Amino acid sequence: MGDCADMHSYMSRCHSCRVESGCWMMYDHPNYMGNGYFFRRGEYADYMSMFGMSNCIRSCRMIPMHRGSYRMRIYERENFMGQMYEMMDDCDNIMDRYRMSHCQSCHVMDGHWLMYEQPHYRGRMWYFRPGEYRSFSNMGGMRFMSMRRIMDSWY
Q: Are residues 44 and 95 in the same domain?
């Protein structure tokens, strides 16, 4: 199975899953929207209580394996404005590392990343692949505080 923008036609409820290979993002709304949850190879007998999820996965996206460098620019404000920092490794707290109170846009140049709304990789997360992200307002106004690379060792 690959990416699926709307899983409702396949199943109405799901209480467990097994990831046989790769890394995946699962979402509780169609079209890769809503809360996102990261899964890597393994069995998830009761992922609902583990992640606090609802009883449905509405869409899923496979995360391609990346072997190479990781590079992302984060910006303090929308449209690549304000302070900019270039990252090549994980950051558990942008306030501690860069004295940034939040990040509102980014440009992912290399690799695949998870960004979290709270420091230390906590709270809601969002998956970012290479591309320009001018504004996070369409993501529920999230302000990201920590970032982590999706490494090939996770596969």
A: no
